[in-house]
Amino acid sequence: MNWIQRNLRTIIYIAFLVPILSVAIVSISHVTKWYGISNPLSWSIYLSIGIEIAALSALAAISAQMGRKVYFPFGVVTLIQFIGNIFFAYQYIDINSQIFKDWVDMVDPVVSFLGVTSGDPIGHKRFLALFSGGMLPIISLSFLHMLVKFEEETKKEKLNKKENYEEVIVEEEIRKDEQIEEQNITEEVTTEGEIPQEEIRKDEQIEEQNITEEVTTEGETPQEEVTNEEPKINRLVYSKRDG
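-> structure tokens emitted (243 positions)
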């Protein structure tokens, strides 16, 4: 299970690629038979290979939205594929074989509603060739279209993951820058708050020193004045009285 989960995209890619390649190989041999009517065998092989590659390339260009001009060559090569596959199937069918008779007996009630005359072997042969040969190009081109869309979705997912990863990195860088700015702001606030406190403390200390000096000077001057004053001598004066 773990291996399947790890390689799921590769498995899906191969699942789309196998029917495209198998049908392309079969279609090349069928178209070679149709080209052999008007060309040598070697040229028929070259042309059938070129037509198959052109059909796949044209569908890939349509899926990549390269413009309306791609639809014309795509229609031409697809029509050649249809004709080659249907012609090969029509030539290969043997109306005298028992397997073909059994097929006619089975589908005769159904195909009679589609315009095929009941019991007409040629009409049933045409319907069988159209049904069996015409399905091959539709299968191949349908799977190629799904493969191209799968590749586009894979690229979109990778691009979205890359964009999300870049957004996460940018957000982390922004958060780091914001954290650094907040730290710088808090440091500036703390430093600005510490400077006035230190200045206030210094001013308080200076004021305290001035007060203490004033107090000491005021307390010492009266003592000096007292010491400098001379002591007063009280003298008794006697006055004479007349008898």
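The chain has a mean pLDDT of 78.
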